[in-house]
Amino acid sequence: MSARDRILARVRAAVDGAPEAPPAARDYLTSHTPDDPAALLDLLHENLADYRALVHRTDPAGVGPLIGRLLGARGSASVLAPAGLPPEWLAHTTCVRVEDTPDATAAELDAVDSVVTGCALAIAETGTLVLDAGPDQGRRRITLVPDHHICVVRIPHQLVASVPQAMLRLDPRRPLTWISGPSATSDIELDRVEGVHGPRTLEVVLVGE
């Protein structure tokens, strides 16, 4: 008998005859936020900024000019954009547009200055953006390798209050990427380092109707 078998045998003996576990409680709140669209938007903005994302607000007509200014301020010469990105979002930039091809290497993606995408949802209570590889988001790798990510959120239909509400609207069969601020990690002395597992700089454009 292996060590694994002995351990499992002891576990079975310890729980033999134990009562069945009670059913999981599902009476928790699905949101802790008042049903006020303006308050929800302010909460998302506050939590995104708390995670050190750079947050901007505009209307649909202002998305293209704003993205052009952000790329210019960054000094970006190239921008990677998914095939389904609305063309007007990049109409005000002179950056060379880079296509995401299946044979693109990590080094080639790392050489791109910026990436611009949409999102599937934004969660106000956690300041989280969720991408699901939709046409305006592209494959996961294009938002993990380049150092600068501009993500556009359409308000109000892409904004939810909480994670439980988000789960009801997301397809678990899709490749979901959950982003809460720029990529960051800390060592045992709590020295924060950004850009280790994804973009060092995250800019979020909140587009109100």
UniProtKB/TrEMBL annotation:
<dbReference type="Pfam" id="PF02589">
    <property type="entry name" value="LUD_dom"/>
</dbReference>
<dbReference type="InterPro" id="IPR037171">
    <property type="entry name" value="NagB/RpiA_transferase-like"/>
</dbReference>
<dbReference type="InterPro" id="IPR024185">
    <property type="entry name" value="FTHF_cligase-like_sf"/>
</dbReference>
<feature type="domain" description="LUD">
    <location>
        <begin position="104"/>
        <end position="207"/>
    </location>
</feature>
<dbReference type="InterPro" id="IPR003741">
    <property type="entry name" value="LUD_dom"/>
</dbReference>
<protein>
    <submittedName>
        <fullName>Lactate utilization protein C</fullName>
    </submittedName>
</protein>
